Amino acid sequence: MKSLNAFLNPVQVENKEVIVSNRFKDNDKVVPFIIRPITQEENKLLIKKYTKKDKKGTEVFDRAEYVQALTASAVVFPDLKNAELQNAYGVLGESSLLQKMLYVGEYAELAIAVQEISGLDKDINNDIEEAKN
Fold first, then answer.
1. What is the C-alpha to C-alpha distance for residues 55 and 126, in angstroms, rounded to an integer?
2. Are 16 and 102 in contact (CB under 8 A)?
3. Cα 112 from Cα 10, distance rounded (Å)
4. Considering only CA atoms, which of 46, 48, 41, 22 is closest in space to residue 33?
5. Which helix (H) or strand (E) covers residue 52, if one does?
6. Of 71, 9, 82, which is closest to residue 38 (Cα–Cα)?
7. What is the CA radius of gyration of the chain?
8. Burial code of 77-105, b = ≥16 C-beta within 10 A, e = fewer?
9. Across the 133 residues of the chain, what is the mean pLDDT of every consecutive 10-residue run?
10. CA–CA dist 33, 69 (Å, integer)
11. Three-class SS state of 126
């Protein structure tokens, strides 16, 4: 019989520092963003939030808004909920702030890092093929 110990005490993924831009400096030192992994429970809520029914009753998933919310949800630092930071960029909301703060390439790099730390960088088809062999 196999032990449940591995499931009772899983290895925790640490928060990760990500430098997405050299524009954010403190005393000439580049300040990284700090991100955390997103759980499937959080992901499920985001998917539900960004899935709407159209007039015909067909479900429509807004992937762009979902990715923006997923990315913003993972940012631990800077605190995207901080009112002073939002006011400085003239926006309301974490996702809007992140979009205003970053250039396209910077945003893409951050989004990729969030997906990687959350385990979305793996192709499940590769895992299936490995399991078959």
1. 38
2. no
3. 24
4. 22
5. strand 51-53
6. 71
7. 18
8. eeebeeeeebeeeebeebbbbbbebbeee
9. 79 91 94 95 93 88 93 96 96 96 96 92 48 39
10. 16
11. helix
